[in-house]
């Protein structure tokens, strides 16, 4: 019985898991979960992940959440090429360092941009106050700065000469604000060059396929019925207004 | 040349690294970084780590940040007992799952409560708005429920019978609000029993030693008043907890 991967490609960590599995020819059942349609509240999905988040994985009886954990599991179970998660102590440490750092930096700030620019205006019927929008951009800029200055430096990739899980996790997060209409690559030649390399290593076709959803997200959100999204209102009000 | 660990034990991830290294008898040089005096902003520390955070590991020329990366590096390099980061595929996955989830869950809300109670009054001259405090408490409570219902369930430890890096990281984070007198364990017998088991596995003496400065956190406002660093630290620290 193949692995089951529960994914919504609007979600960054779902994209990294999807790309990783496809790139490494890992056989899996794609179980589509549409967050916008509330699929994650379904009873069956609750049995796979009681936290009701994506991505989620089921391997026989074994269920697992958290994209980083899932990819490391796949690395070991399917014995993927070493460079994804190098056995070398120092290189692996660099990958782990990035995978840890990114949760509360680029992931958080990139996700926030998507909410601030696309989802919140739709749900609330008005823009987030300028001050908060500026703060969100500032935070994102800072994370991108660290990505370039600390993690990339002069290397072609985060852990050195070859692509790894770190670059994969980084690129999918960096694309979230892009999907929100924020061109993070403008004025950042180093980041752009790295993006080109990563896309090339993954394979342009696979990369573009995985990002098709998020790149069209603005249009999709326009078509949504905002009256069905009002559950988010109180929290948004508290955080942004 | 011995490993250097740059630590301030007020910080949860520093405590995890400290406890692990001590417990597994990993030889290291303890390099104290005094966050309350702004040492992380000085030139010397900036040479060690440009992100200016703790913990940091320095092994010869190799410098590493992020406690989880450091813990895994130490486990691998020093061949620590298997239960900390099990070679078993599924058990290892459970550890990784917890270590990934906790950043935005327990760590974030636990840190906020500590921050609001121990630092905001001295930094701003007023207590934090009740609404923000209530929100952080609510978030922590939700995270603790997930912790009990998903990560622990009826097991003794997160992976089952044995303590792992997941339990260690979990407990040091949960202790953070406790340092300000906020008892996260109150009314949670399952959590309390787990805490007692983890403490016992680590060793009460080592656990208490690692948590000594934290439990003295009420002294921080006076420390900040006395060391004259308040004005320097205010704008920098405010950014951390918006």
Structure description:
- The complex is a heterodimer of chains A (241) and B (242).
- Chain A is α+β, with helices and mostly antiparallel strands.
- Helix content of chain A is 59%, strand content 7%.
- Chain A contains eleven helices and four strands, in the order βαβαββααααααααα.
- Chain A has a four-stranded mixed sheet with strand order 2-1-3-4, with helices on one face.
- In chain A, strand 1 (3-7), helix 1 and strand 2 form a beta-alpha-beta unit.
- In chain A, helix 1 packs parallel to helix 3 and helix 5 packs antiparallel against helix 6 (130-152).
- Chain A starts with a strand and ends with a helix.
- The mean pLDDT of chain A is 95.
- With 242 residues, chain B is of the alpha+beta class.
- Chain B is 58% helix and 7% strand.
- A four-stranded mixed sheet of chain B has the order 2-1-3-4, with helices on one face.
- Chain B starts with a strand and ends with a helix.
- Classes of the chains: A alpha+beta (241), B alpha+beta (242).
- Chain A binds chain B through residues 50-51, 62, 64-70, 72-73, 76-77, 89-90, 92-93, 96-97, 99-101, 103-104, 108, 135, 146, 149-150, 238, and chain B through 50-51, 62, 64-69, 72-73, 76-77, 89-90, 92-93, 96-97, 99-101, 103-104, 108, 131, 135, 146, 149-150, 242.
- DSSP summary: helix tally of chain A: 11
What's the helix-strand series of chain A? EHEHEEHHHHHHHHH
- DSSP summary, beta strand count of chain A: 4
Structural class of chain A: alpha+beta
Distance between the termini of chain B: 41 Å
Average per-residue pLDDT of chain A, rounded, comes to 95
Unreliable stretches of chain B: none
Cross-sheet strand order for the largest sheet of chain A: 2-1-3-4
Largest sheet of chain B: 4 strands, mixed
Overall strand count of chain B: 4
Largest interface: A-B, 31 and 31 residues
Per the principal axes of the C-alpha atoms, what is the gross shape of chain A? globular
* Percentage of residues in DSSP E strands of chain B: 5-15%
Order of helices and strands of chain B: EHEHEEHHHHHHHHHH
Could you tell me the mean pLDDT of chain B?
Answer: 95
Helix content of chain A: 55-70%
How many helices of chain B in DSSP terms? 12
Helical content of chain B (DSSP H or I, runs of 4+): 55-70%
């Amino acid at each position: 019985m193949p692995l089951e991967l529960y994914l919504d490609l609007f979600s960054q960590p779902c994209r990294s898991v999807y790309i990783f599995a496809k790139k490494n020819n890992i056989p899996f059942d794609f179980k589509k979960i549409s967050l916008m349609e509330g699929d994650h509240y379904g009873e069956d999905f609750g049995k796979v992940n009681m936290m009701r988040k994506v991505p989620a994985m089921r391997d026989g009886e074994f269920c697992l959440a958290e994209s980083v954990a899932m990819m490391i599991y796949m690395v070991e179970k399917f014995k993927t090429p070493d460079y994804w998660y190098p056995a070398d102590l120092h290189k692996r440490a660099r990958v782990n360092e990035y995978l840890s750092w990114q949760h509360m930096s680029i992931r958080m700030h990139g996700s926030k941009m998507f909410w601030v620019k696309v989802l919140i205006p739709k749900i609330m019927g008005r823009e987030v106050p300028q001050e908060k929008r500026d703060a969100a951009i500032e935070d994102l800029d800072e994370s991108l700065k660290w990505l370039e200055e600390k993690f990339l430096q002069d290397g072609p990739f985060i852990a050195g000469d070859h692509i790894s899980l770190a670059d994969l996790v980084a690129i999918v997060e960096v694309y979230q604000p892009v999907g929100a209409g924020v061109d993070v690559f403008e004025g950042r030649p180093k980041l752009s060059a790295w993006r080109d390399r990563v896309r090339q290593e993954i394979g342009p076709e696979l990369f573009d396929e995985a990002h098709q959803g998020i790149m069209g997200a603005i249009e999709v959100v326009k078509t949504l019925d905002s009256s069905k999204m009002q559950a988010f209102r109180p929290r948004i009000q508290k955080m942004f207004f | 040349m011995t490993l250097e660990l740059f630590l301030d034990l007020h910080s949860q991830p520093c405590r995890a690294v400290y406890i692990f290294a001590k417990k597994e008898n990993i030889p290291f040089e303890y390099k104290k970084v005094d966050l309350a005096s702004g040492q992380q902003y000085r030139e010397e520390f900036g040479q060690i780590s440009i992100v200016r955070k703790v913990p940091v590991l320095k092994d010869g020329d190799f410098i590493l940040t992020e406690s989880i990366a450091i813990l895994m590096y130490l486990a691998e390099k020093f061949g620590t007992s298997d239960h900390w980061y099990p070679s078993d595929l599924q058990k290892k996955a459970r550890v990784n799952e917890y270590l990934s989830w906790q950043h935005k869950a327990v760590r974030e809300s636990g840190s906020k409560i500590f921050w609001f109670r121990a630092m905001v009054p001295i930094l701003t001259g007023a207590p934090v708005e009740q609404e923000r405090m209530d929100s952080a408490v609510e978030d922590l409570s939700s995270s603790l429920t997930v912790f009990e219902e998903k990560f622990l369930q009826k097991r003794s430890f997160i992976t089952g019978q044995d303590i792992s890096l997941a339990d260690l990281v979990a407990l040091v984070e949960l202790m953070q609000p406790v340092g300000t007198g906020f008892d996260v364990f109150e009314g949670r017998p399952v959590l309390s029993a787990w805490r007692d088991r983890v403490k016992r596995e680590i060793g009460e003496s080592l656990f208490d030693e690692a948590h000594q400065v934290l439990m003295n956190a009420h002294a921080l406002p006076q420390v900040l008043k006395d060391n004259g660093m308040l004005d320097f630290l205010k704008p920098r620290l405010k950014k951390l907890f918006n």
